[in-house]
Amino acid sequence: MVLSSYTGRFAPSPTGPLHLGSLFTALASYLDARAHQGQWLVRMEDLDPPREMAGAADNILRALEHYGLLWDGEVWFQSTRHTFYEEAVHYLLQEKIAFYCTCSRKDLQLLSADSYPGTCRGRHSPPQEPAAIRVQVNDRPIRFDDALQGPCEFNLQQEGGDFIIKRKDGLYAYHLAVVLDDAAQSITHIVRGIDLLDSTPRHCHLQQLLRLPTPHYAHLPVLVNEQGQKLSKQTFAAPIPLADPVPWLFECLRALGQQPPAELLQARRDELLQWAAQHWSLDRVPRQQAIAAVTLCTPGPAHVTSKQP
Length: 309
Ligand code: GLU
Ligand code: ZN
Description:
β9, α6 (200-209) and β10 (216-220) form a beta-alpha-beta unit. This protein is an alpha/beta fold and 309 residues long. A 3-stranded parallel β-sheet has the order 1-2-3, covered by helices on one side. A 3-stranded antiparallel β-sheet has the order 4-5-8. A 3-stranded mixed β-sheet has the order 11-12-13, with helices on one face. It folds into 2 domains: 7-78 and 220-303, Rossmann fold (3-Layer(aba) Sandwich), CATH 3.40.50; 80-180, HUPs (Rossmann fold). The chain has 8 helices and 13 strands. The termini are far apart. The chain binds glutamic acid (GLU) and zinc ion (ZN). Residues 101-103, 119-120 line the site of zinc ion.
């Protein structure tokens, strides 16, 4: 077995099929791992059944295979890990760092504050009515160095306040699950979309509270449609077709600033991926928040052009 100090991951939520935006993210994280001779894991973030689409998890895995993005080991499913999340919630409640919150959305809207005002801090035993569980934050800067976005600093008290780790409806929050699973899978490097940049200080905060290591982060620009909206299920991004993967991978590489030579459009999928891993440079990824992806109406490759946000 090759021992490497790099373990990366792609962690899609199975709310719909893989689209160009998610392929772009998956490819970048895959190449960064392969370029470091690292492991690359896939984890299904199926935490929120009402938002999920039947068959999407399978569909995403088949699409990754079709595009040659083969992962190491078993795919983890967050839906099987509730006991583990509950233990952490229990620990944080016991340590009095987390508390029950019965505020309704309306209560909080009426306060018109940017941050949760701390109303329910101190409620450490379960109330009669349904309650969310929030973790307490501090009025101190949280700093991390992002490989693409540079030094980042957030004050969680001023930017959102105490945040939810378990929802009133009993579902575990993304912030909690992602931190626990990244640690449980020994993830050392996280390459994901910049739309998650302001989640990262929440993740660092939980890592500190739970005494878990903080991985290295790199937040990529996201692909946006002609209206400037992030490609996503909500913006009706088209699924990537299971046709010839080469033109699509090529377009993603271009958008990632990797400058693939035109003749590689004639290459086989695995040759293209091999070239991409050998020549991968995170430094060449554009330092902007958004890259316009104009998908042709007919299934086929997308035109991806660089644009300032
Ligand atoms: N599951 C999250 C999403 O699909 C991504 C999680 C992550 O990369 O941290 O947006
Ligand atoms: Zn509250």
